[in-house]
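Troubleshooting: if your tokenizer reports a length mismatch, compare your output against this known-good record of 162 residues.
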Amino acid sequence: DGELAFSHSGAVSGFLAENLVIPRTKSAVVVLINSEESGAMSALRSKLISTLMPENADVPKVSGPPAVEAAKMMFRGLQFGQVERSSLGDEFSQFLTVERLARAAAALKPLGEPTEVTVGPLAERGGMEVSRVEFRFGSASVAASMFRSSDGKIQQFLLSRQ
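Known-good structure output:
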């Protein structure tokens, strides 16, 4: 149903096996059955998957401001080389050294205030809220991929010029 999955099956007289891995949800289903009836295997696999995985996994609920506001605050902090460290995950905060912030400010401050900020559909990855944000500055634009944990902390903020 549009979900990326990797599977491998095998059989020997009287036994069937299948392993199915769904990377997005870090889920796996292993089915072993004493039968030569592949229909039974298929029915059991489908029942297990539908029981374990809702059709559309919900985006985790995140504390704090909406994604667009968190992204604006983060981008502005990068433009001025001063981020609100309490809004960042520990590892991301350590990654953003004084030198990296200075380089970000040098590259982003000349763009000025964005004329438009849009957030694409929210998704889930690794238990985090993932959003794609686009910042427009007249004819230029910058895209961001932002990952936030349920406590509202930004764990990753990747920028690319469009």
